[in-house]
Amino acid sequence: MTARRAGGFAYIAAIVFLVVLAGFALAVLRLSDTEQTTVNQAVLGARASQAARTGLEWAFYKLKPKNANCATLNPAPDFKTDTGFTVTIECSMQTYDEGLTPAGASVKKNIFELKATACNGATCPGSNTDLANPDYIERKRTASICVAAADGTDCY
């Protein structure tokens, strides 16, 4: 009679041990899934940031010629096929007179304020539908550039 009670306790202890072990395995799987999702979001965020930076550098290139203005940036480049991200560039320009040339003409300088938004949605910035998508990524970068209006050289 006594030996029979000891065997029943071992079965119950084994079942409890297996349940606890299954709980640990489930927690490890859940942590692994969360880690993979976090890494994917970080990679997409880095790619979106680089796409926004590419948009700014494209805008710098387009604004360097003589008498360039914000209309020079239209049409916007298509980065969707190359990067998977749509890039929207917003531009504003201020023109300042800064002194005179030796010939007596005014020296005009254009300062461009640029904002590049990159996202993997249909439009940038994304709509409310895009924002509800957990895979939606959006990054913004801003920069300014000063260009001499007469010859497109950098301002100092």
From TrEMBL:
It comes from the Bacteria. The chain crosses the membrane at residues 9-29. Keywords: Membrane, Transmembrane, Transmembrane helix. This is MSHA biogenesis protein MshP.
